Amino acid sequence: MRAQAIPSAPATALRPLPFTGPWLLAPMEGITDPVFRDLVLERHRPEDLGGAFTEFVRVIDRALPEKVLRRHLGPRRFAIPVGVQLMGSDLGALAATARAAVRAGAPLVDLNFGCPAKGALKGCAGSALLRDPAALGAVVRATFEAVGEAVPVTAKIRAGFDDDSLLEDLAASAEANGAALLTVHCRTRKEGYRDEPDWERIARAVAAVAIPVCGNGGVRTHADLEGMRRATGCAYVMVGHGALADPWIFAGRAVSAAEAARFLLDYEEGLRTRKQATPRGASSRVKQLLRVWTAGGLVADEEDRWTWLHAEEIVARLRHVYSGRYGA
Ligand SMILES: Cc1cc2nc3c(=O)[nH]c(=O)nc-3n(C[C@H](O)[C@H](O)[C@H](O)COP(=O)(O)O)c2cc1C
User: Fold this and answer.
1) 25 CA to centre of ligand 1 in angstroms
2) Are residues 29 and 142 in the same domain?
3) Tally of domains within the chain
4) Is 236 in the pocket of ligand 1 (CB under 6 A)?
5) Strand order in the sheet with 153-158
6) Is pTM beyond 0.90 here?
């Protein structure tokens, strides 16, 4: 089934994308807050990591104030740009929140059309809009008309809701309504995060639109970044889970166990000192990363992972690894 007629292309020229390179850190709720994001950003040169995003910011039926967007952007700025990601379907509230994001300093506003959570679906936001290309287009257009002259508006979709039959229509609708970049997470909502990613869907989106496409889904190694670009023709590649296992994936640098431990120690300390978590909460956020962590050989094998996850004093163990390297 084809979607309804797609509105004509926006009158205003698209703003150039601010990214400093082709590899992007994915937005991840509960993870890519300023504490985690800054640790990744400060460890990369702008040519190695081209951009990052806030976690999604849910917009329900009223505009969020600038201070909320500032909080998501965090206090530090890097040469690597960080876009604000919004999720919602109330056009007026989204437009006003996008303007607040620009006032807060966002160099780009991204729109989330992929979140599979029940709350998003009930509010007809996130992946709910994948069933209706025209409605998705209306969200892009409202945001584009609100801020498109100041900063680029980008859209992040999944390959579809239950299946991928609307992929080209969704891509075309985002483009026709002002998106300067289309990110395609190549799984459908139904496939969640489980199924093997189908990169062919990214190639289909590339063929469907003239704007740059950012491929996303299943990148696990530094070599996969270029591999996805070659296989699909996408201009950018976004990494989620792969960057949780190895935050240095963008540069492809093999770090030492001490450097890996330092990252996790800084993360734990940052969460506490920036009042994002209690000491107990900070330790469990570190454990969340250790469940998948591969960088620096810190976790030798699955048996060793079990010992990390059940360690009483995880910070003491990390300090031990760190101080062993530097002899402190
Ligand atoms: C814990 C978690 C939180 C996520 N939160 C967001 C989010 O806030 N916004 C969004 O667009 N995608 C979100 N995603 C999806 C990722 O951005 C990405 O599209 C997905 O993980 C597929 O990429 P990957 O295979 O490289 O992980 C989230 C994924 C995970 C695992």
Assistant:
1) 10
2) yes
3) 2
4) no
5) 23-25, 236-239, 213-216, 181-185, 153-158, 109-113, 82-87, 52-58
6) yes
